[in-house]
Amino acid sequence: MSVSLPHHSVLIVGGGQAGLSLSHHLQAAGVDHLVLEKHKAMHTWQTQRWDSFTLVPPNWQCALPGHAYAGPAPNGFMKKGEIVEYLDGFLAKLKPPLREGVAVESVRPLPGGGFQVRSSDGEYTADQVVVASGGYHQPIVPRLAERLPASVTQLHSADYRNPDQLPAGKVLVVGAGQSGAQIAEDLHLAGREVVLAVGEAPRCARFYRGRDVVDWLADMGYYDMPVTAHPLREGVRDNTNHYVAGRDGGRDIDLRRFALEGMQLYGPLQALDGDTLRFAPTLAAALDSADRTYNGINASIDAHIAKLGLDAPPPSVYTPLWAPEGERETLSLSASGITSVIWCIGFAPDFRWLAAPVFDGRGHPVHERGVTGVPGLYFLGLPWLHTWGSGRFSGVDRDAAFIAERILDRRAGPSAGVATAATEACPA
Hints:
By secondary structure, the protein is an alpha/beta fold.
């Protein structure tokens, strides 16, 4: 028996900045579509950011379609509440066809073309589907965490809000990427004792030669560079973000300075043997590597200034303020007074609900600028989908416009539509 299901030309999975940016372009083109969001629109900005969170790129890079930043501080860094207000303004202006609190449980291509979508609120069919749910789905917490004493409070960075959340005592922050470094700084500024397990994250200057480094890199065309032109090609998608701060008007994050001020730095956490935490003996190498990146970015700015003959303050080279006397590889959990651990080692993608042959061996989607090998199936909002800004406010509009064009191209083609597939019987 045939069953008629609600049908849309385009179904967008995810109501974050990516999915809603695409909705903007589809509305402008008069394309019927529906956005399904598991939680609330833009929910991660309210639920997965700590209280003192600020943007790292300057405000002028907030350029959602039809909703560029128009506040008084284009070169400043919005705080968490200001970011939420900015996004609420975008949502109110857009008025998208959005259903919140609806989880997509499965998407599969139909034999006659188009897709069947099962959700927590029923089934749909769609001519085309755009996955705009991001790539940060499952907080990564190592199995080692299971062996920590119950007396030790554990949080993932997604759940950290402020130092008062944690019991008295020393805090172990595992991971020194963008989130880990900023959370360690947040705790440090609050007077908490911090042990920081440092990995291979790079760092960059906040300001150099009279301007924000982001401004220089924008002028140099870095943010327009497609992934296909990057020296690492698709490998850049695996890179850890540079750590730098937008807090208090913006500044460098220098782990060496933190060490001089009492923060204890170790290499990456590797194991727990009874009461003993074991760390890799790579702290010095990690700090040196981060500084090489820092100085390398500044050197590229020097070359840009020299090439164009620009008037700017003189160049400089960062020299280390502190260096470890030796590698500390062990730490007694109890003797050190550690009462809390914050895991800042990222997120893993989880696309198990998408039953389409578009993934590599690590579960990452294979695509070219968001277009997959399955006709009518796209990704949007992933890091380095096309450029550095693809997963950010700065570049998602360009990507959304591109996907909207591909959607329109397909609608105009001979394979558009799933009129037959939309009424196929589905197994109970």
